[in-house]
Design goal:
7-stranded mixed sheet; 32% helix; alpha/beta; binds flavin-adenine dinucleotide; FAD/NAD(P)-binding domain; binds 1,4-dihydronicotinamide adenine dinucleotide
Length: 486
Amino acid sequence: MSEVFDVAVIGAGPGGYVAAIRCAQLGLNAVCIDEWKNSKGKASLGGTCLNVGCIPSKALLESSENYFQIKHKVSAHGITAEHVAIDVPAMVARKDKIVTTFTAGIASLFKKNKVKSMHGRGILLDRDDAADLWRIGVDNAGSREVIQAKHVIVATGSVPRTLPLTAIDNTLILDNAGALALTETPKRLGVIGAGVIGLEMGSVWRRLGAEVTILEAMPDFLMAADEQVAKEAKNIFAKEPGLQIQTGISIQAIKTTSDGVTVNYTSSDNQALLLEVDKLIIAIGRVPNTIGLGAEAIGLVLDERGFIKVDSQCRTNLPNIYAVGDVVRGPMLAHKASEEGVAVAELISHIEKGGACAGESVDFNIIPWVIYTAPEIAWVGQTEQELKAAEIAYKVGQFPFIANGRARAMGETTGFVKVIADEKTDRVLGVHMIGPHVSELISEAVMAMKFSASSQDIACIVHAHPSLAEVFHEAALGVDKRALHI
Ligand code: FAD
Ligand code: NAI
C-alpha cells in the first residue's frame, strides 16, 4: 500500500518548501519531493534560490563589495589599507557555508513542522477518481516509490535559457551555477545578457578586478524598470572602470579556444566584432522547468511558452493540481513563489474545511523588484511608461540621495527616489529607487501600496533623521511640490 497524503508538493524551492510548511501549519499532512543534488552529489533543499540563486549571489556580492570598498573607497574616510588582497577560494567557501547552513535549515523546518521530505524526481502518474487521489512516482537512484495525495502543488521552478549557438560546460562557458563557483577572478569576463543575473554577476567579478564586457541584444537594458531609473543606471555603469555594456548586438558565433572563449557578434550599427574572454557567462533569461514531470501524460496544460497554465489562484486545468513560482506566469522571483505557495496552501485548507473555492490571489502589482548592483535598483508598482501607455494621469515627486545627510555621511550619494501618484486621488501607483540600500527602503513603499496609501499619507509619517528613508519621505512630499531640502 502506498502512503497517502493530503498534499504532495513537487519541488522544494521557495515556492514548494514554503507551501509545504504552510500546509503543515494548517494541519494538512504534507510531503515535499525534491530532486536537487549539490556539487558533492548530496540532496540539498531550497531549489535555485538557496543553492545557485538569491542567497549565494548575495553572499558573493557582499564579499566583493567589501573588497571594492576597502580597495577604492575607504581612503576618502582617511583610512589607509595596504596590501589588500582577495582570496577567491575563501570567498567562495564562505558562500558555500552559507548555502549549506540554509539548505540544512529547511530540512530542520520540515522536521519541526512534520513535513515529510522525499528525495527524488516527482512524476505525476495518474488519478484514482474513485478515491479522489493522485498517484505520484518518486524516482531515486533507479528505483520508484509511489505515493498518493489528494492535492498536488507543482513548484518545479525554472532552468537557464540556453543559446542554440553553444553549450554550457561550466568551465569556460558558464550559467548561473558556474558563475557562482569560479575559484579565481578571470582577467577578461564576457556576459551575454544585461539582465538581472548579468548585471549582478558582472558586478561581483568586476569589483574583484575582471574586465567585464556585457553584450545585450535589446537596444536598451533594464527594460522592465522605469525608464528614468534605467537611464540613470546606464549613466552610472558607463562610468565604471572595467565595465562595458554594449546594447543592440547580435551574437553570430561562440567558440572555445585553448585559452578562453571567442564571441563573434555584430554591433547595433552592423559592424562585425570579436570579443575574446577567459570566461563567458550566459544569462539570457530562464525557462519553466517541467522536464520529466509527466505533465503531458496526465493532460496538464502548458501555455505557448511552456509555463504550466494556471488561473489567478494557481489552479491548473486538472482537479486538485496547483502550480506556483517560476513554473507559472508572473515575475520569476523567490518572494513571488513563496507568496503563491502560501496562498495555495490556504486555499487547500479552506477547501478541506468545506469552504467554497474562494481564496486570495497574489497581487503582482505590489511585488517588489530589487537588483543588487551598486547602486542598488528597486521598484514596486507601475512605471511612468506603463502609466502613459494606459493613459492614466499621474503626478511625480522625486528626491536625490545627494541632498540627504545620511547618504552624504556614508559617501553614497548617487541615485534618487521617485514616487508616482494618481493625479486625482493621490494614491501611490509606483515607487522607483536607485541608490544606497534601496533593497531595504523599498519595503516601506510596498507597505504603503499594500494599504492603498496616498503620497500625502507617506508625507505625514515621521522619518528618523538622519536616515536614507528621508529620501523616500522627501520624494512623497515632492508629489505635492513641498519637498523641504531641495
Ligand atoms: P526553484 O527555486 O527553481 O525550485 C524548484 C525545485 O524543484 C528545485 O529544487 C528542483 O530541483 C525541483 N524539481 C524540479 N522538477 C522536479 C521534479 N520533477 N521532482 C522533484 N523535484 C523537482 N529571486 C529573488 O527574489 N531575489 C534574488 O535576489 C534572486 N536572485 C537570483 C539569482 C540567480 C543567480 C538566479 C538564477 C535566480 C535568482 N532569483 C532571485 C530567482 C529565484 O531564484 C527564483 O525566482 C526562485 O528560486 C523560484 O522558486 P521556485 O520554488 O519556483 O523554483
Ligand atoms: P533577464 O530576463 O533578467 O535578462 C536576460 C537578458 O538577456 C535580457 O536583457 C535579454 O534582452 C537578453 N538576451 C536574451 N537573449 C539574448 C541574446 N541572444 N543575446 C544577447 N542578449 C540576450 O534574465 P536573467 O538575467 O537570466 O535572470 C533570470 C531571472 O532570474 C530574472 O528575470 C529574475 O526574474 C531572476 N533573478 C532575480 C534576481 C533578483 O531579484 N535580484 C537576481 C537574478 C535573477
